Amino acid sequence: MGDPSGLATPPATGLDWLPRGQQMADLIVRHDWSSTPIGHPSTWSNALRTAVSTCLSSNFPLLVLWGPDLVKIYNDGYREMIGTEKHPRALGSPVADIWPEIWDTIGPMFDAVVTTGVATWSEHQPLLIDRNGFTEECTFTFSYSPLYGDDGTISGVLDISVETTKEVVQARRLECIADLSASLSMQEHATDACVAAMGALTRHSSDIVAADIMLNVDGSLVPVASNRRSLQAAGRLASAAAEVLDGTPRTVGQPHPGFPAEHRLTPLTNGRGDVIGVFIATLNKLRPFDAGYSQFVEVLAQNIGSVIERAQRRSEIVGELQFVNETLQRAMLPAVRDTPTIAARYLPAANNLSVGGDWYDIIDLSDQRRALVVGDCVGHGLHAATAMGQLRSAARALLLEGSDPGRMIASLDTFAASIEGGACASVVCVVVDRAAGTLDYCRAGHPPPLVVNPNGARWLDASGGPVLGLDPDAPRANTTIDFDVDDVLLMYTDGLVERRGRSINDQFDELAKHALLVADRNVTQVANSILLMMDTDSVDDDVVLLVKRLEDVD
After folding, report:
1. Helix or strand or coil: residue 361?
2. Where does the pLDDT of residue 325 fall: very low under 50, low under 70, confident under 90, or very high at 90 and above?
3. Are 81 and 61 in contact (CB under 8 A)?
C-alpha cells in the first residue's frame, strides 16, 4: 500500500543519527554520498559515524578525512576557513583535489599519520592558498591525528585546525609601527625623518613591499625618500600621487573589493588638514587590501606626517627657505663622508641655498663595481635643484636596474626632455670595475674626467654625445679603459674649470698640473687641495668635485 497521505516517502539518507544545529549537517544530509569513494551513509562503519558525529558536535574547526582517498567531511568552523572557492565542492571530495596548491606541504603529513599512526603538530604554518579567487598568504595551527576503523586499522585522519593569519599579520604590523615610531622619534628634519622611515619600512617589507615619500613644496610634489628600484613604477606612481593632493587616499590595482591591491597612496596632513606630502605604499600582493590593511597604512602615514609637521613648525622659526633648502639638500645629495678611497665636495653658487643644479652620486652595483655620476643642470637655485633631484634619482634607478653608462644616459636623455629644467643638462658616468681593472664611462656634453698618478695624466674625453634633451636619437656609446692601481680619478662640474677671460683649455691644463702635484696624497687632501688651487672661492657657479682612488681587489 502507498502512503495514506498521498505524498511520496523521501528516500532514506542513512543519516538519522547525525547531530543537527550546524548548516553543514543539512549539506551532509543532502549530499550524494553514493557517488563518493566512501559510499552511501547506510554502509558507513561505526567508527566513521562516531568521527562525523564528533565533528558536527563541535564549534571548533574540525575536518574528518576518510578512506584511502581521504574524503573530506567538515563542520561550520572549518567551512569558514576554506573560503568561497573551495566550498561546497570540498564536501565529499578527496583532500588532494581540494588543496593542490599546498599538497607538497600537507600531503607528506597525511601520509606520515596514515602509515605511522603518529599525530602531527604545526604551529603558525605559513601556506599559500587559493580560497577566495586569489593566492593568499595564510597561517594555521593544526594537528593531524589518526582515525581508526572498526577493525582497528587506520582508516582516516582527523584535522583539528585554527587559522592564525589575523594574529600573525597583526603582530608583524604592530612591530612595523613600533619600529617606525622609534626611528622617527629623534628626527628634527623632515628629510631625515623620511629617510629614517624608509629604513624602518625596509626592515618590515612583508606588508609594505616598497614605499615613497613625496613632500609638497609650493604645490608641487618633490620626491624625498624611496626604497623603490623600478624607475618605471616610480614615475607612474609619482603622477598618480598628484591626485592625492586633494586629501583623498587612492587605491591602485585592486580588481575587486576584498582582493589584494597593488598600491595605496595616502596624503600626509598637518593639524590644519593641509596636505604636506604623500605616502606611497606598494602592498603585499598575497594579502587582501581590507579595512585592517587600510588602517595599518593610515597609521604609518599619520606617524610620518606628524614628524614632518613638527619639522615644518621648526622651519617656520628658522625660515621657510631654509626648510626647503634642507629638504632638497638631504633628499638629493648623498651625505658622503670621506673614506680612504673617495671624497666628495659640493659648493653651491647661491649663498642662501645648500644645493643647486649640480649633483653627484655614488652607487654600489656589486662588491667589486661602483658607479660614479656627476651632472649639471642649467641655472642655479631652487628650480635647478628640483630638476637636478629628478635626474639624479632617475640615473640611480637606471643604474641599479642594470643599465651601463651609455644606456643610462640614453634613457636619461628621454626623461630629461619631459621635465622642467631637464633640457641641456650635462652628465658623466664612470663605472669602476675593480675585478677587471677597468673604467667604463660615457659623458653627455660634460667636461671630461681626469685620471692621474705621479707619472702622468689621462683625460676621459671620448665623446658620448651632446647635452641631454636636445637629440633623443644621439648615440650614447660606452668607452672602456684600463686603470693602474693607485690612479686617482677626478670628476667635476664646469664650475671648477670655467673662468671669465680665461681659455678653457688653459684651465684644463691648470687642473691637470695641480692634480699631478697632489696625486700621491690621500683623497681628502687631493679634494681640498684642488679646490684651493683652482681658486673656487671666487667662483659664482656651483662646483662639484668627486675624487676616487682606484684600487684592485683585495
Report:
1. strand
2. low
3. yes
In whole angstroms, give the CA distance from residue 176 to residue 178: 5
Q: Angle, nearest 10°, between helix axes 523-533 and 504-518?
A: 140
CA distances from 454 to 269, 430, 481 (A): 57, 22, 19
Q: What are phi and psi of 18, to 5 degrees?
A: -70, 130
Q: Distance of alpha carbon 542 from its chain centroid, rounded?
A: 34
Cell 599538497 found at: 103
Q: How far apart are CA 472 and CA 15, in angstroms?
A: 78
The H or E element containing residue 405 is: helix 405-416
**SS3 state of residue 211:** strand
| CA proximity to 305, closest of 279, 331, 340 | 279
Cα Rg, the chain, nearest whole Å: 34
Whether the pLDDT of residue 386 is over 80: the answer is no
Q: Which residues face 85 on adjacent strands?
A: none
Nearest alpha-carbon partner for 127 in 97, 143, 103: 103
Locate cell 662588491: which residue?
A: 367
- What is the spatial order of strands in the sheet that 250-252 belongs to? 220-226, 208-217, 275-283, 263-269, 250-252
Strand partners, 264: 251, 281
Q: The sheet that has 488-492: what strands, in order across it? A: 342-347, 543-549, 488-492, 450-453, 456-459
Q: What is the DSSP letter of 132?
A: S
Contact 222, 386 (CB under 8 A): yes
- The whole-angstrom separation of Cα 232 and Cα 214 is 16
Average pLDDT over every residue of 191-200: 88
Q: How far apart are CA 193 and CA 327, in angstroms?
A: 10
Residue 520 sits at the vertex; the CA angle it makes with 516 and 526, to the nearest 5 degrees, is: 70
Alpha helices for 229-290 (secondary structure H) = 231-241
pLDDT in tens, 262-303: 999 999 998 888 999 999 999 999 999 999 999 999 999 999
Place of cell 651632472: 375
